[in-house]
Amino acid sequence: MNGLNMLRPLLLSIALFFTFEPAAAHEIRPTIADVEVSATEVTLSLRITIEALVSGVDLSSVDNTNDAPEAIIYDRLRAMNPADLEAAFRDAWDRISRGFLIEVEGNRLTPGIVSVTIPPVGEIELPRDSLLVIGVTLPEGNAGVRVGLDASFGQFVPRQVGGGENSYEGFLEGGQLTPELPRGETLNESGLQVFARYVIVGFQHIIPLGLDHILFVLGLFFFAAKLGPLLWQVTAFTLAHTVTLAVAATGIVTVPTSIVEPIIAATIVYVGLENTFGWGTMRGRTILVFLFGLVHGLGFASVLGDFGIASGAFVEALLGFNLGVEFGQLAVIAIAFALVGWFMSKPWYRTAIAIPASLIISAIGAFWVVERTLL
Description:
single chain, 8 strands, 3-stranded antiparallel sheet, 12 helices, alpha+beta
């Protein structure tokens, strides 16, 4: 056991060392849009990565453009001067325009380009945010407008302008549409509506979108012999990532995903190894889970903290999101228990189920450490 005690900090140190190696920085961020709906037209002012649209990268399938089949095309576009990139964008507009979803009473409207503002090339390893303004004339009548992005365009943050702090501000996955935005008015949401909406967003960031967080929770599950202490650990995990999500979403702390994501992968490696070698105690594991939860909170914040969550109802959005995350984690535990929890009391459970599962979890985490730092 002394050898294992010496190995324990060494393995953690090695994992953390790798997380600070340089990583590719073609990070994918949500598209943010200021949406203005008048009686006769709708205008969207979007902060968007135009290179991804022109190259045809499916932003719903990758976390980094380096992982996309179109990575070479994207990199070439990223190095283009603004004038040439705008020309390529306009040439591809007929295809690209179909990815902007604007509907009135179920009928799709095709927007046109109002203006395109592309910054100079700058550091090509970083994403370049362009300002794209598009608009479309609305059909006659008073029916409201729904807007969204095609699934391949990735996550979407629409903010209705002109209505004060309670005006609609959403966080949508690709393919989802806003509620109907009334013409000439602003859709106002109550704090309760924001809370309920972000509960769903938080749940979705675990199931089905948070595979790394799912594996971490499963790592906790396969360490536990009883559900009670496990639920305390999951609650500690939620409290911890609530803290870091709050400070990141308010701009107090900003950590790029190129640093956060490998560290998250390293925590997955560690919990799997701790399960396998039997290093920890329930009390020590709970403290460790809280510390790791601080890191995972930065992972959530890499998405939500990039633009701020529901700035007019920040507390409601934050609480709703974290409650949704907690529900998602409990759902993962419930599914795992339904599959193998009945065997926890069996003498062969640890050897036949918990250790093999933990080794698989560690192996996947180790692959992610390498992928997110060296590949």
